Amino acid sequence: MSSNLGQNLSQNLRQFDRLKQFVMPSASMLNLDRQVASGAGMSQAGSQSIKSAVMVIGGGEDKVQDRKILRAFVENSGGESARIAIIPSASREPEEIGRIYNQIFTELGAASVEVLDIRERTTQQDLTELEAKVNNLTGVFMTGGDQLRLCALIGETPLMIAIRDRVHQGRMVLAGTSAGAAAMGHHMIAGGSTGDPPHKEMVNMSTGLGILPDVIVDQHFHNRNRMVRLMTAIASYPDKLGVGIDEDTVAIFEQDHILRVMGRGTVTIVDPGEVSYSNQVWVSSTAPLTIHNLRVHILSAGGKYHLLKRTPLSPSI
């Protein structure tokens, strides 16, 4: 009897150890999410320096209740010292959408907020005035709408080049939501379809703003069933990393090559780095694609991913 009891106890202990390997990381990630939600670990407003990052938002971010993602953008941009510019050029109603975000960022405590209502493309800007304007900003926010319209108006203009340089130098926070998120890469998903097997005509590609040149972004991701669309785009550009972002969720690209997830949904990473076979090159535009060994990671709030090592970072136990 005592032998059976000892065996049962030993089995229970082994099961507990295995269970702990899963429970403890989950608890750790939950604690991370709670810290983000409560603002724990952030400097007090007014004394916070800029935490340079690119914040890629999947659209549909909360603008009414706790506004966690938009609040994080203001905090990263300097809190009460934040000087923010809004670019609503993707929208068909730029004045209205600019007014909405202006009010939100003002209510969240930014020192100054302005709307850059750009409705015509120009490359003949006063470079001295432009440099002074951009150098004075700590954060830029690109709204949703149509990513093709956004890139047609500001892509490779002196304004966008100045913003991109400042972001790459680690001197500014740049955020984009929906269309503003889709435009972050050099290769940009401009549109496409869902609900079909993967094939070349499923996705339409164009040239983005080149903020994150090694990444292809898709937004409203699981909300609009866009997994196959992103996989199809990655099949055409197997040297890139696919990042699909759900609504009210942000992928934060930080200066240490870490992608961090915050918000209500998930971020899906599509990594073709170990693909062993693909028929993308020779099949017709409507024929189904075949791809072997395509890696997929799904990260929820608190999750992290190392962009250089291309590996998810598990929370420490």
Description:
The protein has helices at 2-38, 68-76, 94-107, 127-135, 147-154, 158-168, 179-182, 227-236; strands at residues 53-57, 83-87, 112-115, 139-142, 173-177, 187-192, 203-207, 215-219, 241-245, 249-254, 258-263, 267-271, 277-278, 291-292, 295-299, 304-306, 311-313. It is of the alpha/beta class and 317 residues long. The chain has 2 domains: 1-41; 42-313, Rossmann fold, CATH 3.40.50.880. The strands form 4 sheets. A 9-stranded mixed β-sheet has the order 3-2-4-5-1-10-11-16-17. Strands 8-9-12-15 form a 4-stranded mixed β-sheet. A hairpin with a 4-residue loop joins strand 16 and strand 17 (311-313). Helix 4 packs parallel to helix 6. The protein is globular and about 50 Å long. 41% of the residues are buried. Mean pLDDT is 86; it is low at 12-16 and 18-47.
